[in-house]
Amino acid sequence: MRIYKCINCNAEVLCDNDRVIPEENGIFKMPGKYIEIGNDDCGISANVDEDAEEGAAAENNESQKVRVIDIVHNNRLQQTSFDKPGYMAYIKGYMRNLVEKLRANNTPADEIAAFQAGAQAFVRSVVGSFDEWEFYYPDGGDEMDYETAMVIHVKWEGDDEAQLPIFHYFKAGLKAEKV
Predict the structure, then answer these.
(1) Domain residues for 104?
(2) Has residue 62 been placed in a domain?
(3) Best label site of 6, 35, 129, 165, fewest CB within 10 Å?
(4) Tens digit of pLDDT for each residue in 53-103?
């Protein structure tokens, strides 16, 4: 299993859970899915004292489960929003910072050029259908620099009944750690 972290802020943004992550033009695309969390009983409600006036009443306990998207929940992602000019300002700064970091890490020039071409095409597609996208930041705590942290792009795909969120990550902005 690999955990992927943002190379700028070192916050976890993705875990492959031993599955292949499809890549297209330097962009990782990971489908999310709904999971239910909460109401973890652990068998405690089976020990309810029938004569107790206070405490847990397991028979009448309504389900407290909540549906969440697995990638958002497991990686503690925080949703954010942009207007188009704000997004363009962010992405230009992020790309400039990322290219500088790639150069500092001695990434070959042809790999940087390939990343820039793929990223440019991806950003154009995001701007072209801007209202269809959601954006998430990793939870890096109070000390995180949100201007340099990777924004995860999410677009819902599929038919109306079976839409899934597809999370998009710049591969060059990630570092993998095998666990």
Answers:
(1) 2-35+71-178
(2) no
(3) 129
(4) 555 554 555 568 898 999 999 999 999 999 999 999 999 999 999 999 999
- Identify whether 50 is part of a domain: no
Q: How many domains in the chain? A: 1
The DSSP output letter for 113 is H
Q: Summarize pLDDT for 94-142 with one digit per residue, the tens.
A: 999 999 999 999 999 999 999 999 999 999 999 999 999 999 999 877 7
120's tokens? 């440019």
Helix, strand, or coil here: 48? coil
Residue 52: inside a domain: no
In a domain, 43, yes or no: no
Cβ atoms of residues 116 and 130 within 8 Å:
no
CA angle 63, 38, 132 (to 5 degrees): 100
**CA 167, 37, 177 angle in degrees (round to 5)?**
45
The enclosing domain of 131 has a CATH number of: 2.170.150.10
